[in-house]
């Protein structure tokens, strides 16, 4: 099936590992000119080089902290300088910084979660939309979380920021549909990534059950297994999330905007 992604310029934030890396792989496999980005230069460059070699295609990497206004501006301006345009923006960078539980979270943790999960997407979108208007269209995909509408009590700052991200996505889809800028949101459920493995160890330690000696699998199952009984019977993979993102960026999704899609093995219990 022709996805129409060949030669499109696609920026994926937070793409040196995890879900973002698979989104970058999926878009590049469809022929897009992909710009990968993350803070850590070494891991980013390693991921870029490996992907580029695997797919025999040039892939760019621009280190940037999208949790700051300067980082967002650098990423978008540098992409424009190198490629002259941006057709696809995937706002993937995100996470749940700080300790578990409402009473343990400081103002700084809330601000960090807000900057990383919401402001990053708002700023990058604000920087690309005027050019997309001039170009006659574009695609923006926000990576939110099932925690936005089925909140996990451990990460309430993250839940709130991800819920705001869904709201922003809907607003932008309404505001810019006439410009053929299609804005959609994807909500992953528990997906096996380095972040999940690391958080399982941290949360177990916080609960007084250190995971020393446990493998990554054992730590993830020890912490998340009892808390996330997923109907399909397993956690998700980054590839399963990336597949829907690539679809939303493709020609096949040309009449889809303002939607929010769960990729969660049936975890979400509500119909909205
Ligand atoms: N995994 C899940 O179960 C799950 C579930 C629901 C939603 N999500 C969402 O899916 C997205 C990806 O999650 P993931 O599990 O793949 O995360 P991950 O494994 O922690 O990867 C995060 C990526 O983002 C980069 N990053 C982190 N902070 C950044 C910043 N300030 N600026 C730029 N890049 C930054 C990281 O590289 P550096 O550290 O080098 O910057 C890395 O490349 C996030 O928005 C997350 O909230 C994940």
Task: Please describe what this structure looks like.
The protein is of the alpha/beta class. It has two domains: 9-190 and 236-263, Rossmann fold (3-Layer(aba) Sandwich), CATH 3.40.50; 191-227, no CATH class. 47% of the residues lie in helices and 12% in strands. It has eight helices and seven strands, in the order βαβαβαβαβαβαααβ. The chain has helices at 18-29, 41-55, 69-83, 107-135, 156-176, 194-206, 216-227, 238-249, and strands at 9-12, 33-36, 60-61, 88-91, 138-143, 181-188, 260-263. Strands 3-2-1-4-5-6-7 form a seven-stranded parallel β-sheet, with helices on both faces. Helix 2 links the parallel strand 2 (33-36) and strand 3. Helix 1 (18-29) packs across helix 8, helix 3 (69-83) packs parallel to helix 4 and helix 6 (194-206) crosses helix 7. The model has no long low-confidence stretch (mean pLDDT 96). The chain binds NADP nicotinamide-adenine-dinucleotide phosphate. Residues 13-20, 38-40, 43, 65-67, 92-95, 116, 143, 145, 188, 190-191, 193-196 line the site of NADP nicotinamide-adenine-dinucleotide phosphate.
Helix-strand layout with pairing:
Elements (H helix, E strand, L loop, with lengths): L8 E4 L5 H12 L3 E4 L4 H15 L4 E2 L7 H15 L4 E4 L15 H29 L2 E6 L12 H21 L4 E8 L5 H13 L9 H12 L10 H12 L10 E4 L9
Parallel strand pairs: 1-2, 1-4, 2-3, 4-5, 5-6, 6-7
Helix pairs in contact: 1-8, 3-4, 4-5, 6-7
The site of NADP nicotinamide-adenine-dinucleotide phosphate (NAP) has 29 residues, from helix 1 and helix 6.
